[in-house]
């Protein structure tokens, strides 16, 4: 029996971004299958975070195309991409410290419903949004601290809240920038388990320096070097690629 190819969640063609004379992203082409974790790796300065910013709409590309399940995203503002299901979880957590965990998640739910999200108290009585926020809190393992101020959370809990904020926007493709940054071994293990469970519901594009986590999570990998794609393949293919070893993995694995 011939297996049907996986649907493409995200297709990127010829994506470019220059900062003056510096080419941060050079003709990047990507095909990311639905229901997979696709890792983007590379040395510092390779353009990984710039790429996520271009995909999310936080940065405007100089050229190129971005398609989400066949729908063009290039030229659309960040909020329009969120509404279409292309959502980013940030490297530096973007929570409101003065709000509780539940209130933060409720704001994100309201954002996903295309409402104004600058003033929480204007819609604090929204019961449906509150119930949706509680569902997300349970999903990311924060149900026991929903009434705690976000400023009082541990680092690992804040990172789970950051993922929760993205999930609350009902993503189809979730862009994750260094979700394991600053975590200890146990917290990293919890985050790996959470990301693995997300594959059942959505597609994950993962930028992460922790190669142990990347190898545990990724279905496919793309290596960026100096803003350009050096290689794309399975974990085994990337680990065996001589050019990748020379440019990045060999250095990482000997540190």
TrEMBL record:
Presence of the UniProt keyword Lipid biosynthesis in the record: no
Pfam families hit by this protein: ABC_tran, BCA_ABC_TP_C
SUPFAM superfamilies according to UniProt: P-loop containing nucleoside triphosphate hydrolases (SSF52540)
Record InterPro entries: AAA+_ATPase (IPR003593), ABC_AA/LPS_Transport (IPR051120), ABC_transporter-like_ATP-bd (IPR003439), BCA_ABC_TP_C (IPR032823), P-loop_NTPase (IPR027417)
Cellular compartments per GO CC: plasma membrane
GO MF annotation list: ATP binding; ATP hydrolysis activity
Keywords annotated in UniProt: ATP-binding, Cell membrane, Membrane, Nucleotide-binding, Transport
Domain spans labelled ABC transporter: 10-251
Protein name: ABC-type amino acid transport system, ATPase component protein
């Amino acid at each position: 029996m011939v297996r049907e190819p996986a649907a493409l969640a995200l297709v990127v063609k010829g994506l470019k971004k220059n900062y003056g004379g510096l080419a941060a992203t050079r003709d990047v082409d990507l095909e990311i299958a639905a229901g997979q974790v696709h890792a983007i790796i590379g040395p510092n300065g390779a353009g990984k975070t710039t790429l996520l910013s271009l995909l999310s709409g936080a940065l405007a590309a100089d050229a190129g195309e971005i398609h989400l399940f066949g729908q063009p995203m290039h030229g659309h503002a960040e909020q329009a991409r969120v509404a279409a299901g292309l959502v980013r979880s940030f490297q530096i957590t973007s929570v409101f410290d003065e709000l509780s965990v539940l209130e933060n998640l409720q704001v994100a739910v309201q954002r996903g419903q295309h409402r104004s999200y600058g003033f929480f108290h204007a819609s604090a009585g929204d019961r449906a949004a509150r119930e949706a926020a509680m569902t997300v809190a349970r999903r990311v393992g924060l149900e026991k601290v929903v009434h705690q101020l976000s400023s009082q959370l541990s680092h690992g809990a804040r990172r789970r809240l950051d993922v929760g904020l993205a999930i609350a926007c009902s993503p189809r493709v979730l862009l994750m920038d260094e979700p394991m940054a600053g975590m200890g071994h146990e917290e990293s293990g919890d985050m790996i388990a959470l990301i693995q469970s997300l594959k059942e519901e959505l597609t994950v594009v993962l930028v992460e320096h922790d190669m142990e986590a990347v190898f545990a999570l990724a279905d496919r990998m793309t290596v960026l070097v100096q803003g350009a794609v050096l290689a794309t393949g399975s974990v085994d293919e990337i680990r065996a690629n001589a050019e990748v070893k020379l440019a990045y993995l060999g250095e990482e694995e000997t540190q």
